[in-house]
Amino acid sequence: MKTFNLPLFVLLVFALFTYSGCGEDYGTDNSVVDSLRYDGPQDRAPSNGTGFNTFAAYFPPQETQPYVGRRLEKVSFYLQDIPTQTVVIIYAEGTDGRTPGVERYSINLTQRIRNAGFYEHTITDAVIDIRENEGIWIAVETDLPTDGFQAIGCDDGTNYNPNGDRFLPPTGNTWTSFNEITGSETINWNIRGFLAEE
């Protein structure tokens, strides 16, 4: 005669109902990571001129205000080719929305760059806080050795934002955008900022 084991049955039913393979992905520490970004998946990388090129994403006050008081913890960017030099720079809000303000943070990552792909830098030696009524610029400066070199990657422009393709070319000191230079192309640089938990 077969016997019914009630405690084992209850434990099995509880396990089935509490296990779920779906739901939001909060990471291993059950926290939601907030980010400043315009880009979609990496698609390509445009060719740029020889010398120092600075690629940036500008997040104006209306983008940053939900995060006032939070700290910028990480910066992520995609490299198609390996530049002679790679520097991450964080700028404050400028006076006109077309040009960044003062430099708030800078680090040379050249010695860490070995392969193409996404790179992530954690800001450990400075506090870059999001300030009331201020935007922030997240930039990557590269020194390109030859014409036709492809440095910072970009998306396919499906969700193009004019603040997502800011660009300081090697000639002159005037910030522009990739769209203005090409006259038609709409992309967002693969540059992202990640905020620390509240």
Shape: globular
Major sheet summary line: 6 strands, antiparallel
Mind telling me the CATH class?
Mainly Beta
H-E string: HEEEHEEEEEEEEHE
End-to-end separation in angstroms reads 59 Å
Strand arrangement, largest sheet?
6-5-8-3-10-11
CATH topology: Jelly Rolls
Low-confidence stretches: 8-31
Radius of gyration: 22 Å
Number of domains in the coordinates? 1
Q: Structural class, from secondary structure content?
A: mainly beta
**Secondary structure: helix percent:** 10-25%
Give the integer mean of the pLDDT values: 85
Which CATH architecture?
Sandwich
**Strand portion:** 25-35%
How many runs of DSSP E, i.e. beta strands?
12
State the helix count. Answer: 3
Please give a handful of descriptors for the protein shown.
12 strands, single chain, 6-stranded antiparallel β-sheet, globular, Jelly Rolls, 198 residues, 4-stranded antiparallel β-sheet, mainly beta
What does this structure look like?
- By secondary structure, this protein is mainly beta.
- Helices cover 11% and strands 31% of the residues.
- A six-stranded antiparallel β-sheet has the order 6-5-8-3-10-11. It has a four-stranded antiparallel β-sheet with strand order 1-12-4-7, with no helix packed on it. It has a two-stranded antiparallel sheet with strand order 2-9.
- β10 (166-168) and β11 form a beta hairpin.
- It is globular.
- The N and C termini lie far apart (59 Å).
Quickly describe the structure.
The protein has helices at 6-18, 61-64, 178-182; strands spanning 35-36, 47-48, 51-59, 72-79, 85-92, 103-108, 117-122, 136-144, 149-150, 166-168, 176-177, 191-195. It is mainly beta and 198 residues long.
